[in-house]
Amino acid sequence: MSDANAKTWAGPLQGIRVLDFTRVLAGPAATMALADLGAEVLKIEPPGTGDDTRTFPPFRDEVSHYFISGNRGKKSIVIDLKTEAGVALAKDLAAQCDIVVENYRPGVMDRLGLGYETLSALNPRLIYCAISGFGMTGPLRDKPSFDIVVQALSGALSVNGEPGGLPTKLGIPLGDLVGGINGPIAILAALHERSVTGRGRLIDVSLLDGLVGMLGYLAQLAFFTGEDPKPQGSQHPNLVPYGVFPASDGSIIIACLTNAFWARICKALGMDEQMLDPRFDTLQKRRDQRALVNEMISERTRQKTVAELEALLSEHQVPNAPILGIREALAQPQAVARELVVETEHAVLGRIPIVNRPIRFPGDPQPVPTAPPVLGQHTDEILGEVLGLSAERIAQLRDSKVVG
């Protein structure tokens, strides 16, 4: 791809248009991922405050940090879906789109007249992704859901925290963000299917389903042992040493997955005698002697700084890391090299830093993502360019408060 074309290449989903009825986190994360991949995302927002997260503090010049975090690369159109004319506009837009994404509770979009059956009748090629806390079926179908609720009901919260203490929710809102992962996966699969069949389909994404799916080996451990895995803090339930170890000026992560790594750790920390000790020569034995092994490692790590430990462990190819704060993480050399933070132009804030898209396509660079839109920033553009409405008709809709 030439440099000239690279500047205009949105990504592999260029030419795909998404109608975004989502708000807060799970749905916006899904549509932001599609925007990152090059799709044109038209975010429908209600008049007044728009997406709920526009009101979440803290603010800068009345712009919410929360909204900024989940809506890069999108266009905002304000439509009042409580009016017949607003619903008609939404239907017209759906007829011109490839994908619809919504994250209301099941039944809400049907009551608005914008459910899958209605919109697919207008546009049989439409892929309709519904994201909700518990999915379209089951006894919890209509239960309201937030991230911490899904964490609790999935079992994820029960294994997070320090041994013997109260469970602690994950610092990252993974209960919601799992919708931003599974939604796009399902949508991309449906796009492939549509290329064969010519028809779209309905997708049912449950956040609870998604987080249960992320239990991974913990679920299988429960099946095998017949017992619930317990919180281990930063440690691994079956691998030792694995977790946070003290340094003279802080702490460091050390991870030992195999006997090969055990030998490397011992060499790095001057523990040749322990490396040959038959009490510690298998994964099972080290797990059974967890407290003793961890104290042996800690005795050595306490004598060195984090930087000294990093150098030693890295020299011996032992997985390790300092524990970085968010600002440090975003400014570390690896993040800089990968351009994980970029600057973009916001309509109100001017030049602002944002987290960059997480997926790259070597050889075909995408431009810097556009900033999250201010409320209704693209209303006239979308109505004019997508629906072909005249300036006079748009003015009439605005005067009647159907759009804003």
UniProtKB/TrEMBL annotation:
Organism the protein comes from: Solimonas terrae
A molecular-function term among this protein's GO annotations: CoA-transferase activity
UniProt name for this protein: CoA transferase
Pfam families (UniProt xref): CoA_transf_3
UniProt cross-references to SUPFAM superfamilies, sorted A to Z: CoA-transferase family III (CaiB/BaiF) (SSF89796)
Record's keyword terms, sorted: Transferase
Record carries keyword Metal-binding: no
